[in-house]
Amino acid sequence: MIQLEHVSKTYKRNGTETIALNNVSLQINKGDIFGVIGFSGAGKSTLIRMVNYLEKPTSGTVLIDGNDVSDYTMQELRKTRKNIGMIFQHFNLLNSKTIFHNVAIPLILAKTDKKVIKERVMELLQFVGLEEKATNYPNELSGGQKQRIGIARALASNPSILLCDEATSALDPQTTDSILQLLQKINQAYNITIMIITHEMSIIQKICNRVAVMEKGEIIEEGNVLEVFGNPKHSSTKNFVRTVLQDEIPENIRKKINVIPGSRLFKIDFNDESNELINDMIRNFGVTVNLIYATMNEIKTNTIGHMVIQLIGASATVNQAVSFLSTKEIYVKELAY
Amino acid sequence: MIQLEHVSKTYKRNGTETIALNNVSLQINKGDIFGVIGFSGAGKSTLIRMVNYLEKPTSGTVLIDGNDVSDYTMQELRKTRKNIGMIFQHFNLLNSKTIFHNVAIPLILAKTDKKVIKERVMELLQFVGLEEKATNYPNELSGGQKQRIGIARALASNPSILLCDEATSALDPQTTDSILQLLQKINQAYNITIMIITHEMSIIQKICNRVAVMEKGEIIEEGNVLEVFGNPKHSSTKNFVRTVLQDEIPENIRKKINVIPGSRLFKIDFNDESNELINDMIRNFGVTVNLIYATMNEIKTNTIGHMVIQLIGASATVNQAVSFLSTKEIYVKELAY
Amino acid sequence: ACGNKASSDADEEKTTIKVGTSPGPYSELFIDAIKPILEDEGYTIETVDFTELIQADIALDEGSIDLNVDQHTAYYKNFNSEKGASLTKITPIPTVPTGIFPGRKESLDDIEEGDVIGIPKDPSNAARAYAILQKAGLITLEEDIELVKVTQNDIVENKFNLDIQEMDSAQIPRALNDLDYGVIPGSIVYSSGLDASTSLLHEDILKDLELVAVVDEKNKETKWAQAVKAAYESDEFKAYMEEHNQDDYWFIPEEIR
Amino acid sequence: MFQTTVTVDQFLQAMVDTFYMVGFSLLVGSIIGIPLGILLVITRPGGIIENSVFFKMVNPVINMVRSLPFIILLVAIIPFTRLIVQTSIGTAAAIVPLIIYVSPFIARLVENSILEVDDGIIEAAESMGATPMQTIWYFLVPEAMGSLILSLTTATISLLSATAMAGAVGGGGIGDLAISYGYERFDSFIMLVTVVVLIIFVQVIQSVGNWLAAKVRREN
Amino acid sequence: MFQTTVTVDQFLQAMVDTFYMVGFSLLVGSIIGIPLGILLVITRPGGIIENSVFFKMVNPVINMVRSLPFIILLVAIIPFTRLIVQTSIGTAAAIVPLIIYVSPFIARLVENSILEVDDGIIEAAESMGATPMQTIWYFLVPEAMGSLILSLTTATISLLSATAMAGAVGGGGIGDLAISYGYERFDSFIMLVTVVVLIIFVQVIQSVGNWLAAKVRREN
Ligand SMILES: Nc1ncnc2c1ncn2[C@@H]1O[C@H](COP(=O)(O)OP(=O)(O)OP(=O)(O)O)[C@@H](O)[C@H]1O
Ligand SMILES: Nc1ncnc2c1ncn2[C@@H]1O[C@H](COP(=O)(O)OP(=O)(O)OP(=O)(O)O)[C@@H](O)[C@H]1O
Ligand SMILES: [Mg+2]
Ligand SMILES: [Mg+2]
Fold first, then answer.
1. Is residue D141 within 8 Å of D149, Cβ to Cβ?
2. Residue nearest to atom 5 of ligand 2 (CA)
3. Are the beta carbons of D170 and C20 closer than 8 angstroms?
4. Which end of chain A is more exposed for a tag (fewer CB within 10 A), N or C?
């Protein structure tokens, strides 16, 4: 379990201060896949570096499994860190060493048997699809390949906490998916805690169970992924949700809507419960329903989405249809053309 | 205009060869926003580095505005490069210099007047939202902030060609959007040619007019964005399209479908033309239409999408409805449950 | 021998004498005893410090300095022949003899096969050292050898198979603990504060190894050069030596006695 | 103990001479050595203005000069020294060999510092169409600055130590005082004083160097 | 021209002495200097085992040793030399001051090389819970290797040049031959031969250093 309590971090230089973290409190439970999302410069990297104490908080407390990290001796801190894998935003690979060696290094540090190292490293390289690069050096790899080596290295020593600082930002979606699946697999198999920093909603959506949204050094929203994204409160959160869930009608679709006099436009929830809505309205109220726009998305194992429909008919029938929608306990909002 | 003709690039070390580019031919016209997409390690960075000749092709020709770059003297090459802005995948900022100086450097090299530099740099920093970091140094910036500095630097000297190697990979979607809008604006205002490497389909979708899909050092598909993504031929291309256009019914939606005996499942195009389809089928054929899944997306100014509907009714009526769809010249495909 | 700045017509008027000085008693003697005499006669004495005798001779040859009082005849003659210079002596001057000093061994009678003996490595002092070793009957040098050119290779017989260590002369007093004997030039004996009377054997100063005041050939007859010569021969200087040489530390050549 | 034959004037003169020799040779040595070191980097195989003729000519010359014991160097170049400063003795004459001694030394240290600059920076310069001079001035030198300062510090201290040998040509200076009075005349008092002064000098040089380097690296 | 008073045996002995002095002092000097340089980096303010007591103690000592002209150093440590090698004369006695001369020099060069290692690498080491020893051995040293090799090359050449002064205590060697026969006894033939030999030595040392550094940097 990872707990941050009132953690702040301020950088000072020449008298000017940058507040990178401002009184952040957070709890990540064992086995969580915890996502942190936020705009560039929000303080995500700073936050994750608090966890393995690469950066000391200016104030506040970091607790790992209930122990205050600032009380640790260097030796205890090292022991704790051996249990925390980290994938760096900028990879931080050893340019002087082969890919094999780069992945092996946490095992070498732990004085693992050579044969075991070899097996483990080759297995990891296979996972990230780079076994044929084992004898190459980092500067002979593409950006995404380097990142994958960073991932393999962080996993090498089977850590019980994994910190990922934009671990897939340089990867194509397919490779990203396979990495995410791998993370999910080890999360389930070994109950390891994973903290993922990203600005890709799709990653949160795919594997995180909990999420924190950061802005200007603060956590502005936090909780269960579905809760936070199903019902975003802050405009930043909404902006992120919008990236996977086109919240508004795309501009050029809106332009092409056939504005029929007397017709009305509604935005309604679109989920497993609403499959039959259109059919029912047409059937029951004799109203004409045009489907203008629809989108649907999975967040973890839940589906959220919405659609925009145009109701055409006598004003009374349309009203009836709308009040029918209301009884369905789904979200309905009338839109202007 | 940029032309690559039969360009190959092979890296040799200790006798082993890595073919990073394999006989690639490509033409990018003036004013194009040309996207290059492909898996990690496909050869995208290598390709873009051919254009400003940071890397010499092992064989083949690179032509800029019709001139073979290999015929250039160093001086001519430098002159050409001054006209080509480049955003590096790994930023390559000067750690010893302030942010201001980093952005100013192309102007300093061009011996621009100090006052002009100051104005231009502050304008660019404002564009990328980092004017308050002008006196900071690169190692005091977050990953995304560094990337934005790289972008500002590449734009500083108003180049007529802009090469972007994953220029927004470290940025959140909102910042990415504002950068893309900026690129689009300067593309339109100055008719500059932009080459964008990315593995985010959404970027291609938002601003590119042409696209090349790379795989294993080769261009496997190339052309107008709508053509390539509207009708992807290679499986890699399809995979990329799938990332923005959930092509198949998400697993958990599929699981929850209420399998009504006798009902049939169809996947159909969903675009501006199909707004009234559901309504028409229900009205005209008395069939029940449940909307199971729908997604819609913009590619540049066009909309493509699809929906999955469940048709319930007597087998004859369902058949009638299906044949009605066929007359609409839209794509229809029956799905198994 | 080119690029001579001192123009000859000015020589007659020359009242400033530039002396190249080196560590050791000869320059000090000049400054303590000769300089006041010359100054009384209206000369101004300027000194330039050298740690390397060769450099002082080079400077003398090129005319950067006028006078040197830190070498013997054999040395400057060798310099002349090697460098094509034309240095010449104007007068012999008091000389401190080299001696064999006790190291781990108290007496030359204790000498044994393989004993280690330290001698100066610079040729000017090495010449004296080989001469004194020959005088002590420890080695035999080739006959007719030009003393200043003697090296280890000119030893035809080394009776006790002595291990002769050539080293910095200033290093020898400091290394006596690790040497059985040390051959130490008078100048170093003087500087290091060794008691000269503890010497086991004094050199017989050969004519060619007497220290001399040296100038460029063409200046030999100038007024100032003659003034220097006269100063060394003066009664005033004799009186000075009388006073300062009570323990016979200095060997005073016949010419100026 | 406190008796010495060295006068206060002599001592002050030695200080002045040392400052003069170190300062001047460092200045000229840097003017020669820094560009030379940079040239070694950029003309080497794979460098930005690869020039194997230059590289293969200059590299051995530097080695040659570096290989000569200082006193031999000093003698070997006397004709050259005289050509430059009209004399082969005195402080001025000592400066010529000191420069020749320190320049290639600086060149080697600079070469090592510049070689550590990240390839990406050089690529950035290339991509902007920077001329070789601009690449050096706006990219390589600033990025290597911290290391360059420490290299120059090291060179300055070696130079100070080498000025002690300047006494051979009557160059004077504190180091020479230490050798010709402290060592050769067994004057322990002046030995002590000069050594203390030298230690202070070096301490100051190194501290200034460290401070500047840390400042450039923004560690303080 | 070709006549000389130096015998072939003497010459060969000088070669052997030089090899012995350079080799041994380099070996021991590296054993002392490399760890010292690394310690200077890791104990400095902000270093991985920040230790201002150690840093503030050792830094001035290094400066102190670096400030002494070689001959003074040699004299100053005679008691120590005798303690170590039982004698104050001969090649063995020369090695002690050579080691003391070169160790802090190596330490400074190593310090400069190690300081150039990217902070990100040190962070990676920290994040893996590497001990300070592991950080040095598995991260800092390999990443700085190219630069370290060039630094040691520079130190070796300075050392070779310093052995010329070993003659002061009867240390012998090629450099001493050059000085005491070539220079002091005007033996131009031996001067030429020794200088050529020294140049070849330096050339070989530098070439091997460059080659190794390039190999480590994978430039060849
Ligand atoms: N210097 C080099 N030596 C050997 N192989 C190299 C070198 N540079 C690149 N490669 C190889 O060439 C291939 C293409 O690399 P490139 O950097 O162009 O990929 P990319 O498409 O940009 O990938 P990414 O999206 O991960 O950045 C990769 O397999 C890479 O390992
Ligand atoms: N060493 C430093 N000195 C001064 N300011 C710093 C330093 N490191 C980070 N900052 C500032 O702290 C803020 C948070 O940085 P951080 O790296 O945590 O952002 P981030 O959320 O990871 O952003 P990104 O998504 O762009 O990587 C930024 O405004 C950054 O400029
Ligand atoms: Mg970050
Ligand atoms: Mg790439």
1. no
2. B140
3. yes
4. C
Out of A227, A243, A259, a domain closes at A243
Question: Which of A215, A243, A271 lies at the terminal end of a domain, its last residue?
Answer: A243
User: Residue A321: which CATH number?
Assistant: 3.30.70.260
Residues B268 and B291 both lie in one domain: yes
Q: What are the tens digits of pLDDT across the range A253-302?
A: 777 788 888 888 888 888 777 788 888 888 888 898 888 888 877 766 66
d(CA B25, CA B36): 13
Average pLDDT, chain D: 90
CATH number of the structural domain spanning residue B131: 3.40.50.300
> Mind telling me how many Å the CA of A110 is from chain B's nearest CA?
30
Instruction: Look up residue A4 and give its two tokens.
Output: 């941050």
D3 within a domain of the structure (yes/no): no
B173 and B81 together in one domain: yes
Ligand with the closest atom to the CA of A24: 2
Say whether C171 and E183 touch across the interface (CB within 8 A). Answer: no
Range of the domain at D209: 8-219
Structural domains in chain D (count): 1
Note whether residue D179 is domain-resident.
yes
User: Per the domain annotation, does E2 fall within a domain?
Assistant: no
When CB atoms are compared, the residue of B88, B105, B137 closest to D120 is B88
On whether both B194 and B132 belong to a single domain, the answer is yes
Average pLDDT of the residues of chain B: 90
Q: Considering only CA atoms, which residue is closest to atom 7 of ligand 2?
A: B140
Spatial distance between the Cα atoms of C232 and C37, rounded to a whole number of angstroms: 9
Residue A36 reports pLDDT greater than 90? yes
Pick the residue whose CA is nearest to atom 4 on ligand 2. B140
Q: Which atom of ligand 1 is nearest to the CA of A141?
A: 31
What is residue B247's predicted lDDT score, i.e. its pLDDT? 62
pLDDT, mean of residues D110-138: 94
Which residue has 């130096």 as its token pair?
E6
Do B259 and B232 share a structural domain?
no
Q: What is the pLDDT of residues C84-140, one digit of tens each?
A: 999 999 999 999 899 999 999 999 999 999 999 999 988 888 989 999 999 999 999
Can you state the angle between helices C73-83 and C53-62, rounded to 10 degrees? 60
Strands B264-269 and B67-68 turn out to be unpaired
Dist. CA C227–CA C229, nearest whole Å: 5
Same domain, B164 and B304: no
Looking at the structure, do residues A257 and A232 belong to the same domain, yes or no? Answer: no
C-interface mutation test, from E70, E185, E191, most C Cβ less than 10 A away:
E185
- Which of D123, D129, D145 is nearest residue B96 as measured by Cβ atoms? D145
Instruction: Indicate whether B10 and B87 sit together in one domain.
Output: yes
Percent of chain D with pLDDT over 90: 59
ipTM: 0.85
pTM above 0.90, yes or no: no
In a domain, E25, yes or no: yes
Residue D57, domain CATH: 1.10.3720.10
Token couple for A152: 């393999």
Task: Tally the domains of chain B.
Answer: 2
Q: D124 and B106 in contact by Cβ < 8 A? A: no
Give the H/E segment covering residue B193: strand B193-198
The DSSP result for chain D, as a single string, is ----S--HHHHHHHHHHHHHHHHHHHHHHHHHHHHHHHHHHHHSTTSTT--HHHHHHHHHHHHHHHHS-HHHHHHHTHHHHHHHHS-SSHHHHHHHHHHHHHHHHHHHHHHHHHHTS-HHHHHHHHHTT--HHHIIIIIIHHHHHHHHHHHHHHHHHHHHHHHGGGGGGT---HHHHIIIIIITS--HHHHHHHHHHHHHHHHHHHHHHHHHHHHHTT--
- Taking the C-alpha atoms of residue B277 and residue B300, their distance in angstroms, rounded to an integer, is 25
**Residue E154 with chain D: CB contacts under 8 Å:** 105, 108-109, 112
A236 and A260 co-located in one domain: no
